[in-house]
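All the exercises in this workshop are built on plain-text protein records. A record pairs a protein's sequence with a compact description of its fold. Backbone structure tokens are a discrete shorthand for how the chain folds in space. Once this layout is familiar, the rest of the handout is easier to follow. As an example, a complete record with its sequence and its structure tokens follows.
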Amino acid sequence: MSGHHLAQLNVGTLRHPLDDPRTHGFTSMLDTLNSVADRSPGFVWRLVGDGGNDATAIRTSLGADVIVNMSVWESRESLWDYVYRSGHLDVLRRRAEWFELPKTAFQVMWWVPAGHVPTVEEAVERLELLRAHGPSPSAFGFRDRYTAAEADLAVLAPAATTKAQPTD
């Protein structure tokens, strides 16, 4: 899959402001988690804010109390290893301490051409696609196993099925 990388976005609605002492358990671990991600095999890129090492100040159309985390990985396996085998899982298990329980999908993945840096807007569109239509090659979660080739076909399919319009 050298021609594609896996992009991911996950979002969380904070229970308390980032500077609230009740959120300190989360904010105090960000630099360490980001450093581990940066050094993880298969890591390509992650979103950071202006002047910071994380993206906690970036806001989207999802709401003022929603923080985002976005990154790109060489493969699903490299992202899986980071999330579930690097110490990140300990933080994930404590998510309910700092974030509201999600009522809809809070994480989405999609394939991007190698070298493409996704925008936050692109990522939010993918999350909204997943929320509206469920998993597909264009927007999916860890339980889904869509390949980059399937994502390419999904992009090409609408054009291939469009009927030519008669010309005068």
About this structure: Residues 39 and 113 are 22 Å apart (CA to CA). The longest strand covers residues 4-13. The first helix runs from residue 24 to 27. The domain at 4-161 is CATH 3.30.70.100 (Alpha-Beta Plaits).
